[in-house]
Design brief:
Elements: H1 2-65, E1 77-85, E2 88-96, E3 101-102, H2 108-119, H3 122-136, H4 149-154, H5 180-186, E4 190-191, H6 206-212, H7 217-228, E5 250-258, E6 264-273, E7 282-292, E8 301-302
Parallel strand pairs: 1-8, 3-4
Antiparallel strand pairs: 1-2, 2-5, 5-6, 6-7
Helix pairs in contact: 2-3
Amino acid sequence: MHDCHIRQQGMALVMVLWVISLMTIMAGSFALSTQREAGILSHAHERAKAQALADGGVNYAMMMLSLPDPKLRWQADGTPYLWQVDGARVSIRIMDEGGKVDVNAAQEQTLKTVFKFLAGNEELAEHLSDAIMDWRDPDDLKRTHGAEAEDYQSRRMQAPPQNRNFLILDEVRGVMGVTPALYRKMESWFTLYTGTDGLNPAKASREVLMALMGGDAAAVDSYIQQRSLGAPATAPIIPGLPPGGSSDMAYTIMAVAEIEGQQGAGVLTTIRRGLGIDGSPFTVLRWKPYVIPPKATPNSQEN
């Protein structure tokens, strides 16, 4: 009896130890799960905060563009600016759409000239410009180097030319001959928002100016410095590319916020001056949020 009682006590002790171990494991698992959920909530909170700051950066940029003092006014030529607020860094770039070519208003020679810079091939430039003209015009008559519905069908492309102006720039991806790599280059050169033929060098980005000025970095930097100071600057004259473009009317703004090394949140938007439907002093034409790693934000200069 005594031995049996001892065995029962031993088994009871083993059961108690087993229950305690199980509860310890469960408690640790619960703590780990709680810690993970707290981390996820914290990350979501920081990301939402960064997104809100990036959105605010767009409004701040529009305010800085409207300052009466030209020395304080921000430049809409891609110059990087840094706005520090609430313990965060918001990197901002502004591009005047007047420094680009309106893909809907550009004439044939303008398109050919731009595509020579982008494609580096005169024959390909002719094919691309004619394809865009065929995409835009209301008829089904094929230009010499262009493409109409039957050409798209023969290549099993998703959609034929729409015989109208482009509604969004992304539609250019569907033009025959426009590859993903070429489209990425086109984004720096083309717009939908000036309504005039040509390009205004005084508002062009450094990337575009480098192409227009034959890659002469010193000449480009000198020109950018002169125009940023409001000094007279001789714009490059490019045969086949009219120095037009409606400026100070529409802007593309990129704002990226970073909070203490967290993943950055940003917004890419195109804005036109003029009262919006909500009574704001400008109209939003495009608004695209996106998230990028903090280290991918460009080097910026403090304001």
